[in-house]
Amino acid sequence: MDKVLVARAAFPDIVDRLHAHFEVDDNPEDRILAKPELIARLAGKRGAFITGSERIDAEVLDANPQLQAVCNMAVGFNNIDVAACTARGVIVTNTPDVLTETTADFGFALMMATARRIAESEHYLRRGEWTKWSYDQFVGPDVHGATLGILGMGRIGQAIARRGVKGFGMKLVYHNRSRLAPEIEADLGARYVDKATLLGESDHLVLVVPYSPASHHAIGAAELAQMKPSATLTNIARGGVVDDAALAIALKNRTIAAAGLDVFEGEPKVHPGLLEVPNVVLTPHIASASIATRRAMASLAVDNLIAALGHGPNAGRPPTPVNPQVLAR
Ligand code: GLV
User: Fold this and answer.
1) Active-site residue 23, yes or no?
2) Catalytic residue among 204, 271, 285, 294
């Protein structure tokens, strides 16, 4: 029987489906496996169920030439060196689509919490500092009717845009590698702009761009300086898309009004400067964390692993491959 590694804990009733096809080495205590341990635990395994916390690179692959499938329980796959996998004939899969609407709900909620100062005012109340209502207490910018800016207009970016435009009457500007189809632009009243215009016009800028060397520090000191002092920035993309040190300074100096962050450079560590400023809402990478969506992600990753290793009804045709060219060989 083929052996697979389940590198992190996931819903046991879903992961159990692997037992019908494979000998499963799992991690019920849910420890993050450091690289040497990950390499050792992959020995003899043909496939792996991983999450964003496992890094699969050339060193891991070369130590495990028997590995044929790496199935990520995440839509983002910057934790995987896909080119190295493709070069070695290793199929990589991710979990797109099933998390789009849930992640967009969260992105919109985080943007609203940031603009309307929900976390900051809640902390104030809990500290016992609320003694009276005042006309200017925790006033912030409006969301409805404001200009929503989106950097990265993929599935999740479009789902956030729909919420803003259709639900809150927002005006929409966006920047992306490629432009939306004209009918989608028309439906959303979306204006495609260059990055400088996006930074300058957005009242609420939301980042939904995949992490890659090209998007590293896409928002740094220079970009923050181009934003309105009244603007908010929300990052649900990946740590590293924002220069967190520069953002902490901008928030402290109020060169932008506030930020909402679900992802961080070097997470689960958080830049200490971000912990010190009141005008930031911080959440622990939970944008996809509805029960139904996390279950759907685990299920899709399991389906991918079963199919990628030639089992089940979709044998040889994993539903959501990242490098389908490997399957064609
Ligand atoms: C979460 O960050 C994901 O990529 O699914």
Assistant:
1) no
2) 285
